[in-house]
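worker-03 picked up job from queue 'complexes'. Input manifest follows; three sequence lines, order preserved.
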Amino acid sequence: MRIAIEGGRVIDPAHQADTVTDLFIADGRIAGSGQPPAGFAPDRRIDARGRIVCPGLIDLCARPREPGQEHKATIASEARAAAAGGITTLVCPPDTDPVIDEPAVVELIRRRARAAGQVRMLTLGALTHRLRGERLAEMAALKEAGCVGVGDGGRAIASSRVLRRALEYAATFDLTVFLTPLDPELGHGLAHEGQVATRFGLPGIPVAAETGIIARDLELIRDLGVRVHFGRLSSARAVELVARAQEEGLPITADTAVHHLHLSEIDLSGFDSRCHAIPPLRGLRDRDALRAGLASGVLGALCSDHQPHEPDAKQAPFGDTEPGISGLDTLLALGLRLARDGVLPLPALLERLTWGPARILGLDGGHLGVGAPADVCVFDPGAEWRVEPDTLHSRGHNSPFLGWDLQGQVTHTLLEGQVVYTRKERV
Amino acid sequence: MRDAEFLIEVMAGQLQDLLVRRGIAEPALVGVHTGGVWVAERLRQRLGIATPLGRLDISFYRDDFSRIGVNPQVRPSELPFDVDDRHVVLIDDVLYTGRTVRAALNELFDYGRPASVLLAVLADRGGRELPVEANVVGTRLKLPPGQQIQLVGPEPLQLLIQTAP
Amino acid sequence: MSATDLQVDRQGRLLHFLTVEGLTRRHLTEILDTAESLRGVAERRVKKLPTLHGKTVVNLFFEASTRTRTTFELAAKRLSADVLNLNIATSATTKGESLLDTLRNIEAMQCDMFVVRHAQSGAADFMARHVKPHIAVLNAGDGCHAHPTQGMLDAFTIRRHKPDFPSLQVAIVGDILHSRVARSLIHALNILGAGEVRVIAPRTLLPAWVESLGARVFHSPKVGLREVDVIVMLRLQRERMERALLPTEQEFFQQYGLTEERLALAKPDAIVMHPGPINRGVEIDSRVADGPRSVILEQVTNGIAVRMAIMSIVLGNHARPIEEDA
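worker-03 finished. Artifact:
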């Protein structure tokens, strides 16, 4: 299959490229741009005039809910949503049921994802057996089975002793460790410890629940040389800590979820359970610092932290609802909104969604250089759409952005040179 | 506009006669908020009754709660005497459908069992929807349903007739 | 939609009573004045009004509280409503039937008002958001969020003793962090224009940003109780010790308990309040609780009148046809 994507504004952040040109794809890889390679005869042409052509998005944290919670969503349903959102690679954290702590689970997810076919679904292995934070998981076997890293699966390891051992062991096998810094005890709450939690009588999660763990982890990392990625930072102070560690030369990367850049504790007013997230939506100052961190590159990736839910999971008093936001459908458009708001230039934004996460994962991808896997996202940056249950592809409709008018809509998604999504024009 | 004070004078005469005929020496006067209380105060002075005045706010006894809800200006009811075996004179400004009187009687009986109840009103405008009649009437008026009659007070007392907006 | 938008219609009428926050002084004054009219009912031979005759009030208690439930029950019965008491163990809803299912089931019984108590903040809001429009929801305490009828009965009791609100100094002492009573009372006093609301507690029992509620913070009763007109003591739950918020009850009593010596710091005619049930010797000394300045039992009596007032106002507003916008 040879495809020519013609006349689009091709933005390839890895190569600092931003030109209106043609992109050529052959045999699942990027074959060239500008002038077609010798003898290139496309089987299919995609008219990308007025559109942006960029590498397929790489989402560092999305939970397809399978295996274990198929009543919320499935690999097949969320693979479709990813493709519709221009996401070609997503990373599934290990807190599935069963936990990704043995190769069989990795294999199961790979098989299901391959059957679904619309997205490259990567897995993180568990750092500890059953994610209990007590015994190490078989990280070497998990790596051999295909895990791109190991992580705590959203449950920070309370024991510093166990964590230190886990980091050492992961370093032995050259695994990147993905941590979510939230103190399991101090972080036990429902909302950011601020004015809103005080007014609504919701148990607060102080910023120190995040920063205390980061500070500890940084000290543990210092001598080990292990690559650590902090996922889903939520506070200004956390960005500061990570920035300082990066300046010191620690091999640290970090990301944040896109909803933390658009929402704050104020959005919890009226006990809106759609805004129930962990880590919690924090203050406006935190939101602004996260935005600045994304712009400066301290936060090298922007992710969806996709957590689809069935309606019942959110239909209860706030504290009885499950945390998490369905985000695959809105990742790109909410990111573009940041670029439009002047938070960071469009190429930089796309870098945080493609090349940035690719580097964190150590993937050959996230760029449009010749020979790279042809994972491509074509989108219409001006296309307006309203977030509604009808316009969401994910099975989870638990989005606090329902009713928002967004700009930017994917028209084509290519995975390894295959068109896996084409937007149907509404009649 | 009617001279309310004159009508109260008329009422006082009628009431005095009635009490004598019935052999009631010391009745307890009870006004229905708001206009009824003004009238009752004046009657009590004219008749020289020692028993303190009772006041009823029938807001919680209205039969149209399910249509109009609670009156936001509701005042406490107070009957500063023992109702049991007392001869009570219930006093209101205007007698119309009879529903207020029914509500007032219901409330009165929740305080005790009076020996008897007489009804005295400043103006009877007809239009009864319940079998209620006054024993003492200051004036009788025939008003079409579109018109309202209202006692304005407390100083001076004026009986106003208005066309409903 | 905020709780305020949820409980007040476009004409400003109360349709539910979920929180004091966001209401106007007019709303609160109407409740207090109506309660004043209802206070005498308890002294009559027939302690009953026909106002809610034929209405059904359901006490939906997901958290056990015999005392609060009883006062709501009595309030509804004194208004001639039929009362259904449902004590629903929280486990039944978290494990099996959802709150929404419970709600739909009881709704199907043709009720007019839900009185809801629930351990989760926001539970009453949730109910109000999902009930059919003819049903009124009264919050009888949701998590640490609000207990608005208690806040109103406290304000009512204060007003009967200290009607001059602009010069009023009120101190609330104890576990503010977990207290829905404190939150509702702070809002009520501020809306009614009280001179100053103080909160007195160790840092572990104060929420972050408590000043933003409209209260001045003191850590020492020696300073905080000086010249106040009203002292509200809050109940201290035993589990606070287990959760490492306080060392012992004894230390709490020594530092914060209301004794006669501490009471002497307040104005000579200061009143002492407590939402009950009281822990003698933990937050309050028996001599103070039973002493001449205590209005604790009066609060209980007033609670019935205030709840009657709120029930009749809210149900009355449901009764009136809602004028649609042209």
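worker-03 released lock.
Strands of chain C lie at 56-61, 82-87, 113-118, 136-142, 169-173, 196-200, 216-218, 230-233, 271-273.
The radius of gyration of chain C is 19 Å.
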